[in-house]
Structures
1.
Amino acid sequence: GNSVTQMEGPVTLSEEAFLTINCTYTATGYPSLFWYVQYPGEGLQLLLKATKADDKGSNKGFEATYRKETTSFHLEKGSVQVSDSAVYFCALSDNNAGNMLTFGGGTRLMVKP
Amino acid sequence: KAGVTQTPRYLIKTRGQQVTLSCSPISGHRSVSWYQQTPGQGLQFLFEYFSETQRNKGNFPGRFSGRQFSNSRSEMNVSTLELGDSALYLCASSQTTGNANSPLHFGNGTRLTVT
């Protein structure tokens, strides 16, 4: 079956540091890939997505590139802010399975001023 | 435009009871999905409804059920509650199904505690 593995947290960074959160996946076919963010006490918000190999998703300074050869979708940001502190989830959807998403375990990011 | 609304926000139930959670999707959205979030198992897909029909179901026992109404509002029901059902239940809506360009919008969830 499908699965998503992402680095365990917490990841603690100082403001303006570079962020990488690793995500790898196992899937049959050609899934779509997503990064979601969850702030305390809230639901998930879509951060960015990529629907085919070599696509780069980007939003709010975050980027991730769909790498089929390494089955990866690593999240990066050049300069994090305290407001980026949240839990980040990598997810995939099998294009034949409706809106069923398979999520990674989540990575908590803490950014210190 | 109002977001996805889940009620109630918090719920405390006793083992063996049943519970019904409600989700109102964004206006115009026809797909509603439900997810369970726990510290141990993470985020797991429960089921998806599209135009009042269950489209997909995750690997959960039959105690977990759901339905969708003609106005796209959805309810999920858990019968014979167990301690392990304590979780944050998230509802997500989207305009259509199976289209990555129609992203899921999540509600803030219902926190269920079973004692």
2.
Amino acid sequence: EAGVAQSPRYKIIEKRQSVAFWCNPISGHATLYWYQQILGQGPKLLIQFQNNGVVDDSQLPKDRFSAERLKGVDSTLKIQPAKLEDSAVYLCASSFRDRVENIQYFGAGTRLSVL
Amino acid sequence: DAKTTQPPSMDCAEGRAANLPCNHSTISGNEYVYWYRQIHSQGPQYIIHGLKNNETNEMASLIITEDRKSSTLILPHATLRDTAVYYCIAEAKAAGNKLTFGGGTRVLVKP
């Protein structure tokens, strides 16, 4: 079974530039998550999708971050404009919808460096 | 959210059992406990989860106390590849089964 795919693996940009990350979840997983992981900390949820609808985006800095999942499968996370403090690993995860438990499967992440 | 408390770090000898404690005293009766681990430069990897009963799979065992206020993850025979950060998470049913990661326990397996 293929896992969660993310690209690119690494990205280096200058502050005020824009950047986009892509995620392809595990086939059949209706729920998709984007997390931000700053060095030395645990992942922090940015946004959760159920199919193509947003369930929770309370932690997403909406003045600069946006995310979409137009067809309920792939998703993109965008930062515009980037700040130095956005340097982090951006993780995508997916899970089944109709389960009592919430087992999330993670991709390898995209490491963003903002200079 | 039900908060969890873990020691920040621990060492373990290769080939010995590693016992990782977690406190989750505010967990509700229907909220699961999940364990993930994160090896350097990789995404978190699901290990095991449980509600009330002890659980075992090919990776680890999970022992949950009867009052559900704490649990222990057991890696029966630690190898060098088990060196990672281990996260204990109590889900938040009221927040749509949200999983909130804390700082985890950094486990170093030594030869």
